[in-house]
Specification:
α1 crosses α6, α2 packs antiparallel against α3 and α4 packs parallel to α6. The relative contact order is 0.19. The chain is built from seven helices and twelve strands. It is an alpha+beta fold and 336 residues long. The chain starts with 18 loop residues before the first helix and ends with a strand. Strands 6, 7, 8, 9, 10, 11 and 12 form a seven-stranded mixed β-sheet that branches. Strands 1, 2, 3, 4 and 5 form a five-stranded antiparallel β-sheet that branches. A hairpin with a 2-residue loop joins β8 and β9.
Length: 336
Amino acid sequence: MTRQAGPEGGTIERRVVLRGAAGALLGAAAAGCTGGGSPRHTPGSPSATASPTGSPVPGALPRTTPWRPTSAEVDPEVKLRAVQLVEAIGAWPAGKGGTAAAEARVAALRLPTGLVGQAGTLLPSADAAALQVVDAQYGGILTDASSVLVVCRQWTRHGARIVAGGTTVDVRLVRTGSAWTVTALHPAQPGAAVGSPSAAVRAVLADTRIVLPPAAEADLRSGLVHDSVPSAMLWLARTYRMEVSVVRSGHPLNVFGTNRPSDHPRGRAFDVWRIDGRAVVDPAAPRTLVERFMRDAAAAGSYNVGGPVQLSGGATSGQFFSDDTHHDHVHIGFLR
């Protein structure tokens, strides 16, 4: 089966709908309105708080569990290969840190050891490290090439001090015969935090109904994300508990398999992988829930909503789309 890249980030101009609703919400956010509830985590993931700025937390390294795909994936093997590599590079016991030890772990996976040199912040200097993959999401999947966005939290030990952080890695793979092999790693580069985030960003960071992984939180703190993104998050959080996978960094620059710029690196999109505790990729997740969330994302101002379900209607004929890449998440993009 040939898998096609989706229209995310396309250049066809579309009308942004219900901008007034998002603007009204921003006003409420500025007044300090936040949602209720508590954040949910991947089954087996540690409950320690992760910070993209590397703030210290007390105690020992948390216990983590390997992330493994289910049979509901379009291609479980491509995600498994990407995740195994990130887990091998980003976690190690005392005495096994550094490049040489990481290369040995990568070699044990029968992958090129040169990939370690592309690990960036995934391989910090530390005495020991623990890593928990939050989610692995398609950045694009074609017949013989794929991008898998591995979203992770990481804890490093420096003497008696534990530092929480994490990143998102765009793992590129190609199919050789019946197997997938990794060709490149592109860790997220969110940029430095601004001194005073916008009112919408501050409200998102305080809203317990919006769960952000480290790279996505750092994206919002960087000031490089348009306010349409946090405003829509807040609007949706009035109805849903949602877990974000990717905002700006750690995503391919172009819509995978095309030369069209993606809205993500331009700070005009975000992806959601779990809604009200139900993973989008899970066949048991009610389709009505996913469909309603997609339509509400459009109502929040998105011109380009993609997911596992092809919806009819919309403000334009192309406002909703579906393909294999968006089988495991909902994409929500904005014109500005």
